[in-house]
Amino acid sequence: MAQGIFVITEQRGGTFRKVSFEALSEGRRLADAKNAPLAAIVCGSGVEDTAAALEKYGPDRILVADDASLADYTTDAYTNVIAKAVQSEDPELILIGASITGKDLSARLAARLDAGLAMDCVGIRLEGDDFIFTRPMYGGKVIADVKINGTPKLAAIRPNVMAIAEAPRSSAVEKIDAEAGEVKTRIVEWKLESTDKVELTEADIVVSGGRGTGGDFSAIEALADALGGAVGASRTAVDEGWRPHSDQVGQTGKVVSPNLYVACGISGAIQHLAGMSTSKVIVAINKDPEAPIFSKADYGVVGDLAQVVPAMTEEVKKLK
Amino acid sequence: MEIVVLVKQVPDTESLIQIAGDGVSIKTEDLKWVMNPYDEFAVEEALRIKEAQGGTVTILSMGPAKTVETIRTALAMGADKGIHINDPAAEGSDALATAKILAAALKEMPYDLIIAGMRAVDGDNYQVAPAVAELLGIPQITQVIQEEITGDTIRCTQVVEGGAAVIEAKLPVLFTAQRGLNEPRYASLPGIMKAKKKPLDTKTLADLGVDAATVGAQNQKVQITALNPPPARQAITMIEGDDPQTLAVNLVKKLHEEAKVL
């Protein structure tokens, strides 16, 4: 019978994604509740020391697939290696972070294993012996409880939602078969931006601007900088060409769940709300007291963002 | 170049979604149905490739009778023909079962390139397209914002956290369209007129050789047990103050002392 929990971690250049720690912490919590073993999988090249550092989050075992052919993520190689590990270990549940890579990999892996996958989960709980996965649908307009029939059960967890909890133990580090198999894609080039830029989907704080900025994002950027956060944008701001597509928050953009979301000059179209509604604290700053964004916010400021936001930036600097 | 675009009809993103009486589905009566926005990018890219290289663009979609409207929209944009999989036994199929049905249809068709939206904005699963690629044994490149085909090789720019990766593969390939790939065209009036005469085949599961007992609502691996509205937020606290400075001071104070997020 399938037993135990696997967590597929994600690292690039020896640095794990934060969501991998979230997945491991969630895996530890569920493994304790089920009295089941927890194993972390790490794929990469020269990652044995990196992998050992995962001990902090409490896996019983750390399975390392270490090979030059796994240095960069490719769908084929990672699916081949992980599917083999799953087939030999037969876990009941597999957790993975729903990053862009995690989405790419989990969907392919689920099809390979003929298994059910709950994508972008914001919660997992046990009802008796059954896992119930909570996931937004329709861009967060509805929250679904789903169960997965059969094993293994795959769940990709939304970044920034589940808590990281340290639970150090001395994990057994084991090498596993790292044979990449046939790989039909080739990475020609990485085009990575400077690493000090906070990734929107992983940021603890997001400051977003919309039509009300009139295209001037300097105040938004200054506040985001002061807060150590990332800049987001409404669809209007992107359609107007004020911000790149990669900044768009909403049902047809990125979904974010920061601790603090500051919506500046954003009216709150339903498709925008869908992209940020799982943020922990939402602040709306808008000239129009009737703007729908106020119905979804925790704190509201009726005012001109061009004046309120710079004043806020100064106040934030005083806190530091 | 034989290009197949996987298209889904979904509720318009401006729609209010309401939970139906059964607690596990949504009310569909008052919804406006449109082509999944990411699929519009997929159709547009297919048309641009065809215009540059020649070939045929086929739209493949599964869904009830009204799905025909969305296929016709793609034909009006300029696609050549459509295949509509319509079978009550397929209704309620989860992502993987949907992929099995689409893959069965694709196995009977020529294709060099398959393009799909990177996700459908109803189920938000991000799953069907990669699962189709797996079932067909071809490479997938997801979340693509730029592509270039030279001979039998496609080079795609894929969005990743913190930047992009340039990935190359030999055709046949499946890639999924991310916002930024292109600006989809609108269907012209002559396009709409022409679309009415373009071939649109309807297929059942039996036509595709898919065993109905492996798909549909009764065979979900991922099964919805409840739908709930998003958790309600506490009533909003409006920040008081007569000038921007005071508003900002009071807001930051609340965020620091009450919400404890600063």
Brief digest:
The complex is a heterodimer of chains A (320) and B (262). Chain A is α/β, with parallel strands linked by helices. Helix content of chain A is 28%, strand content 29%.
Structure description:
The complex is a heterodimer of chains A (320) and B (262). Chain A has 320 residues and is α/β, with parallel strands linked by helices. Chain A has 2 domains: 171 residues, HUPs (Rossmann fold); 120 residues, 3-Layer(aba) Sandwich (Rossmann fold). In chain A, 28% of the residues lie in helices and 29% in strands. Chain A contains 8 helices and 18 strands. In chain A, the strands form 4 sheets. Chain A has a 7-stranded parallel sheet with strand order 7-11-6-1-4-5-12, with helices on both faces. A 5-stranded parallel sheet of chain A has the order 15-14-16-17-18. In chain A, helix 7 links the parallel strand 16 and strand 17. In chain A, helix 3 packs across helix 4 and helix 5 runs parallel beside helix 8. Chain A is elongated. The termini of chain A are far apart. The relative contact order of chain A is 0.12. By secondary structure, chain B is of the alpha/beta class. Chain B is built from 7 helices and 13 strands. In chain B, the strands form 2 sheets. Chain B has a 9-stranded mixed sheet with strand order 9-8-7-10-6-1-4-5-11, sandwiched between helices. The longest helix of chain B has 17 residues. The mean pLDDT of chain B is 97. Chains A and B meet through helix 3, helix 4, strand 7, strand 9 and strand 10 of A and helix 3, helix 4, strand 7, strand 8 and strand 9 of B. Strand 10 of chain A pairs antiparallel with strand 12 of chain B.
Could you name the key traits of this structure?
heterodimer; A: 320 residues; alpha/beta; Rossmann fold; 7-stranded parallel sheet; elongated; B: 262 residues; two-stranded antiparallel ribbon; globular
